[in-house]
Amino acid sequence: MHLYLHVPFCARRCSYCDFAIAVRRDVPARRFVDQLLREWRGWAGSDRFPGAAPLATIYFGGGTPSLLDPVELARLLAALRAERPLGAGAEVTLEANPDDVTPAAAAAWSAAGINRVSLGVQSFDPAVLAWMHRTHTAAQVPEAVRVLRAAGITNLSLDLIYALPEALDRDWGADLDRALALAPDHLSLYGLTVESQTPLGRWVARGAALPPPEERYANEFLTARERLTAAGFRHYEVSNYARPGREAVHNSAYWRRAPYLGLGPSAHSAVGVHRWWNRREYAAWAAAIESAATTVEAAEQLDPDAVRVEDLYLGLRTDAGLEAATLPGSLVQLWAGHGWARAAGGRVCLTGEGWLRLDALVAQAAGIPHPGVTDLS
Ligand code: SF4
Q1: In this structure, are residues 367 and 309 in contact, taking their beta carbons and an 8 Å threshold?
Q2: Taking residues 339-364, what's their average pLDDT?
């Protein structure tokens, strides 16, 4: 069983962010942890999660989980462990913003059992960080890395965002160099998307910002792939790179269709063909907990067609790929001919060029409409 806990609180909203967050100066950590534990106890041992299988991974995502009072985070982890064993060597990840990483916080996280931190870096360029409305400075990143390692948290991942508007004149290669200089174990790279309900979406709508041209996305995706693989990282999933043995165990569970339980506002859960997701807004989720109502906003059961599409998507997004026999030979030949896929050892894996077309290739394999499919013949 894999456990995801969504901590929705943020100090302010980043310009590009459309996650389910609650901007709070004072985080109601004690009440929130009590609410999470109530939600946990409603699911643990239920029909969906019978028995007492150990927790293989725990992942605190957000929002900004590093804003939670470390004392409350430790209380939450201790309560979970008292009720459900942690598997041997279980990965316990905390997403953190660099400005929250102090020696005292890092020591408390380590003592509480956090053994992996994913740092939201995004860029090392001060102008870019200001444009993004990030709360940290570039100088706080190496300091956070040093402090975490000194506290014994040595499994570190860095998040960066690429494909920024041209007007920012961001030097992607320089940011990759700065990240590599910190010798991280793992990197997650996300292309910027413009969502209408964000400050960036509003800037674009009134012409105050221009989204980047598509070539920038492709060029920076391929530049990162070349640089990071040359530096010894494995590009094991479309957005993720790891040193050997440092692949994210929790995220990999999603891509293997392992069962996971999500707690907190907007958290998603999956067991077999069942999917369900929580109320998105913190206030609505908290009100449901307090009134002993369900926190689930909606649920669905995948039919065989949906399972096939999901299998295609999950398989093709990782470097494990798919069994070749699950795809028509003509399609594999077509993809290989364009340099989008490689077939070897009875499996088909997408190349970097293929991952740039992931959605369209999945749609083509599944025989479902997609605007990009017409360009794929
Ligand atoms: S810190 Fe993360 S979750 Fe919070 S607003 Fe920024 S991008 Fe969104």
Answers
A1: no
A2: 96
Which residues surround ligand 1 with Cβ inside 6 Å? Answer: 10, 13-14, 17, 19, 21, 62-64, 97, 120
- Which of 7, 13, 67 is the best mutation target for the ligand 1 pocket, counting ligand atoms within 8 Å of the beta carbon and taking the most? 13
At 199-216, the pLDDT tens digits run 999 999 999 999 988 899
Tokens of 45: 């041992």
Q: Tell which one of 16, 19, 158 to mutate to probe ligand 1, the residue whose CB is within 8 A of the most ligand atoms.
A: 19
pLDDT digits (tens, 9 = 90+) for 243-272: 999 999 999 999 999 999 999 999 999 999
Instruction: Measure 134 CA to ligand 1 centroid, in angstroms.
Output: 8
Q: Whose CA is nearest to atom 2 of ligand 1?
A: 63
Cis peptide before 63 (omega within 30 of 0): yes
Is there a contact between 81 and 27 (Cβ–Cβ < 8 Å)? no
Helix axes 70-83, 29-43, angle to 10 degrees: 20
Choose among 360, 331, 355: nearest CA to 343: 331
Would you say the pTM of this structure is higher than 0.90?
Answer: yes
* Helices within the chain (DSSP H only): 29-43, 70-83, 103-112, 126-131, 140-150, 172-181, 199-205, 214-230, 249-255, 282-290, 304-317, 329-338, 352-355, 358-366
Which protein residue has the closest C-alpha to ligand 1 atom 3?
Answer: 63
Q: How many residues does the chain have?
A: 377
Among all chains, which residue has been given the structure tokens 């399972």?
Answer: 307
The alpha-carbon radius of gyration of the chain (Å, integer) is: 21
Nearest-atom index, ligand 1, CA of 95: 2
41 contact partners, CB below 8 Å, separation of at least 6: 83
